[in-house]
Design brief:
The chain has 413 residues and is mainly alpha-helical. It is built from 18 helices and two strands. The protein has helices at residues 12-26, 32-43, 48-71, 78-99, 103-131, 134-165, 168-175, 177-189, 209-212, 215-248, 260-269, 271-285, 287-305, 313-328, 331-341, 347-375, 382-396, 398-407, and strands at residues 2-4, 7-9. A hairpin with a 2-residue loop joins strand 1 (2-4) and strand 2. Helix 3 (48-71) packs parallel to helix 5, helix 10 packs antiparallel against helix 17 (382-396) and helix 13 packs antiparallel against helix 18. The radius of gyration is 20 Å and the shape is globular.
């Protein structure tokens, strides 16, 4: 580490740590709605579909702006985009705390939070990959992606504990401190991108046709869409599912007095080593091979997860932990694969498409999960939970299909 030009200069590894910490802090508002969803379901008398909208609209906000914001990182310093995203994230959490009285207000401020994530997640990754040596890039991407799991876990834990001690409005207000710290850290410690990192390939800002023609990259992009469908549906509904399972247990059963949000935080924490180790395995044994195995295993665990609710609660938690491992083991590897497959000068555009399609799955997944709960009998039905989770298994099973189809070279006429 050195100081020059009034700015701290960090080595590649130290910069990666700083950026990962900032990213974990920037998403402290992510899990507030999923963590407190049982409260909103009761207080606002929401259906499963309405609850799905509340959790999924976050990603609709993300999708609305991510093509522009991430594509701009090929042309302007990513730190400027990150600054905007962090400020919007702060406004989202504070606005929810101060102004939301029901479903429609929640939709508006939740969507605003997605806009904030679009300004921090991939722009932060672009800033990181601009400054780490190429030999470190895949591993840096893995740790950066995994750092989200720590942020999500802290968000679950803090939201639940603050709401229990004070109320849900205080939970939203206090988690806004996270992106505020992230903004400060990022602006002070992350250096500006050099001009050669901002040399976009020729073409219009939102011309994504070259990316769509990149078959290798698009295989990872579409598989990432399936991954995020599964990931964010499971994370959006995990607290509500654990509360449902606790309600089925006999008095005195192990774990029924535990906070469902604390358990959700633990379930999210195991995602970090799973994501990192999944990418390491992909580098060593072959990316497509490892991803196919991981996604297949996740589909199998999803098929039984919802039906586990009436089992002894220790088994319910064990299945949830296993499912978190399989869900997350492909995350970093998919993103690293897309980054590596990107055409030089189009990394930002490739990441924009990757994010748009990936988080499109994040938008649809929680919503469809809630709709399936309603159609199969409601959130008080054991069958409905089994069907909804099994649906996630069908979606993630498409991931290996996308990787196989798009890996093949196009047929010549």
């Amino acid at each position: 580490m050195a100081v020059g030009g009034g700015r701290v200069r960090l080595s590649g590894s130290r910069l990666a740590v700083v950026v990962c910490i900032a990213e974990g802090l920037s998403v402290l508002g992510f899990s507030t709605v999923p963590a407190l969803l049982p409260t909103f379901l009761e207080d606002w008398n929401l259906s499963g579909t309405e609850a799905g909208w509340m959790t999924g609209v976050y990603f609709a906000g993300y999708m609305a702006v991510v093509p522009v914001l991430v594509s701009l990182t090929d042309r302007v310093d990513p730190r400027r985009i990150y600054f905007f995203g962090a400020v919007v994230s702060i406004a989202s959490s504070l606005g929810f705390a101060l102004f939301v009285e029901g479903f429609w207000g929640a939709l508006a401020f939740r969507a605003l939070g997605g806009v904030g994530l679009a300004g921090t997640y991939m722009p932060g990754l672009k800033a990181l990959t601009d400054h780490v040596p190429e030999r470190m890039r895949s591993r840096a991407v893995a740790f950066y992606t995994a750092s989200l799991s720590i942020g999500f876990a802290l968000s679950f834990l803090l939201s639940g504990e603050i709401a229990a001690a004070l109320d849900w409005r205080w939970a939203f207000a206090l988690v806004a401190i996270g992106p505020a710290i992230a903004l400060l850290v990022f602006q002070v410690l992350v250096p500006p991108s050099e001009p050669h990192h901002l040399s976009a390939a020729p073409g219009a800002l939102l011309d994504f046709r070259p990316v769509l023609r990149n078959r290798a990259a698009m295989g990872y992009v579409l598989a990432y869409g399936a991954h995020n469908w599964e990931l964010f549906a499971a994370r959006s509904w995990i607290v509500t599912f654990l509360v449902f399972s606790q309600g089925l247990q006999a008095p005195g059963t192990w774990g029924i007095a535990w906070s469902a949000t604390a358990l959700a935080a633990l379930i999210n924490v195991v995602a970090l080593p799973a994501s990192v180790l999944g990418n390491e395995a992909a580098v060593k044994f072959g990316r497509r091979r490892v991803l196919t195995i991981v996604m297949g295993a996740s589909a199998l665990v999803a098929a039984v997860s919802g039906f586990s609710a009436p089992l002894p609660f220790v088994l319910v938690v064990a299945v949830a932990l296993l499912y978190s491992l399989t869900i997350s083991a492909d995350s970093a590897s998919l993103t690293a694969g897309a980054v590596e497959a990107a055409t030089p000068g189009q990394r930002g555009a490739t990441m924009a498409v990757h994010s748009f399609i990936g988080f499109g799955g994040g938008f649809v997944g929680p919503l469809v999960f809630g709709m399936m709960l309603d159609m199969a009998g409601g959130r008080d039905s054991q069958l409905a939970w089994g069907v909804a989770f099994a649906g996630l298994g069908l979606v993630i099973a498409l991931g290996p299909v996308f990787l196989a189809v798009f890996h093949r070279p196009p047929k010549k006429n």
